[in-house]
Hints:
- The protein is α+β, with helices and mostly antiparallel strands.
- It has a domain at 6-125: Gcn5-related N-acetyltransferase (GNAT) (Aminopeptidase), CATH 3.40.630.
- 24% of the residues lie in helices and 35% in strands.
- It is built from 4 helices and 7 strands.
- Strand 3 (68-78) and strand 4 form a beta hairpin.
- Helix 3 crosses helix 4 (132-140).
- 24% of the residues are buried.
Amino acid sequence: MAQQSVRLRPVAEEDLELFRRFGSEPGLIGLDWGGFRNPHAPARRFAEDGYLAEDNGRLMVETAEGETAGFVGWTSRTYTGPRSAFWEIGIALLPEFRGRGLGWRAQAALCDYLFMHTPVHRIEAATHPENAAEQRALEKAGFTFEGTVRGAEFRAGQWRDGLVYGRLRTDPAPGV
């Protein structure tokens, strides 16, 4: 399957249905399904700040042909102390857009965007041990595997491990 380039853009009102689908269709979001969500929450959030807040946000992922493939998001996190802020990022692509090279490109583009427009030095991403495709995507996007967090999340009725990846501002940018 041919790899494709991506474009990130702000969330538009017509994208809200996609967010509703991710919150109401089990399995659509893959391993991150956490149960049904309030179907009105996406519209409220969009009305509040268009999904572009100071400490978190979302951008839509579009193919070169202009198809909406999913979204990327970021949230501010800290370790200890006020000077240790970093971004935690994530991605959700519709199943028909997976496996085309869009995911790693979108995550690399999001890192470029965040490093360009915010002063953070670190960006983190986490994934599931069974999600080998996302592990490869993160490595292609310039992330380094940093370790396993045991019992990190409650999903599908049990506590499960998570894998943590990090990318620093000073790390080499991935090849596109």
